[in-house]
Each structure stands twice: as C-alpha cells, then as structure tokens.
Amino acid sequence: MASARILAVDDSPTILEMIKAILLQGGYEVITAMDGAEALETARAEMPDLILLDVMLPKLDGYRVCRLLKFDQKYKGIPIIMLTAKTEEQAMATGIRTGANQYLTKPIEPERLLGAVAEELQKAQG
Amino acid sequence: MVNDGSSLSKDLTPEQFKRFRDYIHQHSGIYLEESKSDSLRISLITRATRFGFAALDDYFKLLSTDESEFNELMNLVTINETSFFRFPAQFEALRQFIVPEIVEAKPETQRSFRVWSAGCSTGEEPYSASMTLLDSGLEGLGYKLEVFGTDVSTNALERAKAGVYPSRALLNIPHSVATRFFEPTPEGHRVADRARRLVDFQFHNLIKEPYPLGLMGNWDVIFCRNVTIYFKLESTRRVVDNFFNSLNPGGYLFIGHSETLTSISDRFEPVEVGGVFLYRKPQQRHTSFARVVEQRRGESRRPLAKQTDAAVRVGRRDRVRSAPPGAIVDERTGVAEKADIPGLIVSARKASEEGRSKDVLKIVEDVLAVDPSNAEVYLLAAYSHADSGDLQTALEECKRSIVLDPLSAAAHYVLGIIYQRQSEPERALQEFRRTIYLDADFVLAHFNMANIHRAKGVKLEACRSYENALRSLYRTPEGEWTWFLGGFRPDLLAQTCERSLLECRKKA
User: Fold this and answer.
1) B417 at the A interface (CB within 8 A)?
2) B181-202 residue pLDDT tens
3) Model pTM?
4) How many CB atoms are closer than 10 A to CB B244?
C-alpha cells in the first residue's frame, strides 16, 4: 500500500521542518502549508489522508480552517489533528467544537505525534 | 588524533603552505605571498593548538568545512594586513553619522575634532581618517582637525611618517579620493600635504601605563582594530578601559568589524550605525530611571535618530502615558518608579510559550510604560505579532528592539524569521549571519540558513550550515535559541539536521 500523504501546516519554517522530519521518519509522504489560506487551498487540491494543523496561523486561524473543512461534505472525512501551545480547557473545547479529531498540546514529542497520526489514519480507514 | 597540541608539528611545509594559501585565496580573495608563510604558520598553529589537532592537515579538514572557523583564522592572518579605508563601511559611518552626531552635541566654543588611531602600523588608518574628516566639511565650519597615530613598531612609524605607498595599498580607494589625496612619485603614491598636515605620529605601547598626558582625554573617536584579538583578555580589558577614560562623553570607539566588547567592557553603549557595530561612551551616566524621565520630557535629541527609524521614537513616547498596575508613581514627576519588570518579563515569556498573544502584548504595554527602552519586551512583542501572522507590526517591533540592543543575537534571529516568512530569503540570510556573528552557537540560525540554502538549491552551502548546526548543537545543547524551538526538544532538532544533511549530501 502506498504510504499515507499528510498535510502539515505551521507558520514557523523551523517547526514545519521538524514536523516534516518526524513524519518522514514515520514513513509518511509530506506536503506543507504555512498559513490558513494556503492550508485550505492545498487540502482541497491535494486531498491529503490527514492534516496536522497549527492553531495560530496567519490569514485564517487553525480553528477556522478546521471548521471550513469539517462542514464540507467532500472534505469532512479527512482526519485533522490540531497542534497548539494552548493549555486552557476553553481552548481545548473550541478545538473539539470545530470538529478536530484530536488535539495535541505542545511540547510535541515525536512518539506521541506519530501515535496520534497512526491512530487517526486507522480510524479513517476502518 | 586529538591531543593537547604539544605534539603538533610546528613546521609548515611548502606543500601545506600552498594548500592553505590556495584555500584562503579561493574563499577570501586574499592572496598570501611567500613572505607571509611565517605569519600564516603562526596563525595556523594558534588555531590548531586550540582544538588539540596533532597535524595541520587535520586542521585543514576542519577549516574547509567550517565557515566560522575560517573567519577566526582570517582574523589572525589579517591582523597586520592594512590598507587605506580598510573596512570602508566604518569610514563611511564616521563621515555620514558619527561626525555630525558628535559635532551637534559639542558646545559652540569647542571647535575641534580629534581622532586617535591606536596601533596605526604604517599609517594607512590615520591617513584614511584624515581624508574622511576633510571630506566631512568640518574645516569649513572653523573646526580644528587632528589625527594622531601611535604604534609600538618604530619601523612602522618611520614608514607612516614617510607616507609613500605601493599601488596595492590604494586598492580600496575610489578613484576620486585617490586623485585628490595622493601624488604620484617615482617611489610610489605619496599622501598629499593637505591630508598629511592633520596627522601626527608617536611611539606608544598600549599596555604600558600610565598613558602620556597628551593621549589621556579629549578624543572624539578612537580607532583600535584587532585590539580584542591581539591582546590577552586581562590586557584587553585595561586597554579598553583606558580608551573609555580618554574619550569625550559621546565619543566612539571603532574596533574590528568582527570583534565585540561583550565580556570585555560594559561601560560602552553598543550602537549599530550604517550597518557597522560601534561603541559609544555614554553622554552622561544615567540610571535607567533617569533615562525614563529624560525621554518623558522629550529632551533626548540624539542625532542618531536621523538614521534610526523616526517611528521608533514616536512609538516609544506614545507608550509612556500610563503607569501599569502595581507601579509606584512619583506624584511630582508622574513617573512610575518601581515595577517588577523581571517578573513581568517572565510572565510574558510564559504567555508567549502558551500562545496567549493578547496577554503577552498587555504585559509588554505595562513594562514599556515604566521602561520604554526595554529591548527584550519589544522582542517579545515582535515574536507575538509574528506568531499571529501580523508580520508588518512584528517587523517594526523587532527593529525597535534592535535599535535599543543591537548586539542581541535573539533579536537578529527573530528578524531573520520574520523576513523568512515574508519570503525575503536574502534578508533572512543576512540576519541569520548576524545572529551567528553575535552568538556562534545559535543553533537555529545555522538550521534556518541551511533550510534557505536548500530551498535555493545551493546544496553545498546547505550541507555546511547543517553541519555547523550539528556542531553547535553538540557543543551547546541548550542556549538562548532553545526558547524558539516552540516546545520541541533539541534532540529532535538534531535528528532533523542529520536527516536533512544526509539528503543534501546525496544530492550535492
């Protein structure tokens, strides 16, 4: 089976490179976007198998990107994992309300990230 | 292979000399004649011993893969290399910014401008200073101009006084300057009398104290390039202290373009002027509180504002209106005296780590109300704005931070990040280079440089930067830069570098 293709979205080139490294190490194919608008466009054009989405993004924040995709019949099946530094329950609740499948808080450990990705991909296929 | 250096062969074979000479020529454009073999040998042994290499060939391997080591070696190799207008940007800064700034601050009655070139060697530097002062137009305003060159080498001083130079000494000089200030003679190019008459030379050993009366005090500018490279740390401190005491308030110390006074002296104010780093003796010894008062009264009118951003000042004044909660306000002056600024900065950092931008910006406002020249909070503001995608505001705040603290590696790093996100890779690269210049082990700057080179398809440069990142990472696994990892662990960065390096090598 071809390896899953993952869209990683973060506005920091540094962080994006590191997330990419983790995913490549996990054997996934990776595409990237650096702001909310680009994320939305790329998701629609490329139909990735999963999206890793930072909350704090220029142009459109991660919540809105997530909501726009999850409210669209065509894309709502793509699992979305939100990445954020926020620890408050309030923020967590917003994340879930927008329809994100999982919510990972930073600091992000490679094992935890790969675990969450594998879990969501499995759920989506099953 | 690595030892304490005691068994390092102290000879430089002709083959080795050629190998190093060609490498240096290829990478710096400087061609070392055979006569420089001994000075190159000493420089090489100095550096190789520092790393404990048993053979110069091993040191060559390091040199050819490590840009920062190459710079270190070049500092040593070029110590005695001198030419007219060496580091032209410094002379440009002198003419364009420093002379007007100092003159504006002088009392009407004090119409003189004095420059001391300490360690002037064969005279190129003091003559360059003389030509620069003449071009600044001060004489027409009735100023008496004086340039004084001192050195420990009497041979060098003899040649300086003769003032006749071979063609290659004039390499950096624009044609227009050469024709105005030099006369061709059968022996070579002779400095014209109009530039000569300002300059005087005298023997002086910078290490020997006390300094003669004529050297102590009343200097507007002192040039002493390579002082931090040439002397041992303790001597350097004393020399720099003597310079401080000899300068007029508001006077400037020019050191080499790759030197810094960090850990040598904190009495000077570091200033970036026209792209060069210089050190200024403060006008008066202010406490930061006094500075706040001065700025509130709007009395600060340093001409430096001409070349900084006018918006910096306006922005700063705007913010000094209200005292933050918890600050004690002096009813007479209306100025807040105390606030727990370190505490506030800690909370701002925490808020930033948790992505609470609004909270960060609130704390920034509070701190700036009490301490409007706090470079660190401007930087936190910049980082916050960048995080929420407002790159334009981020850029402005970051530049403010750099104006206040031009030698902050972190501030230049953040500026690089902002340019990188604005898709301006060249500017980003420049800022990352500055970051590394200020903190050679700022791992993330190496890492981001590597990523930019790779994106541009410059694989060799990318490999080198990834290697530098890894080397720095092994040397200092934690530093100021770790804060910018956004919660990732440094070992993940190491893995990322290793993987990217392998990929780049495959393609290179």
Assistant:
1) yes
2) 999 999 889 999 999 999 999 9
3) 0.48
4) 17
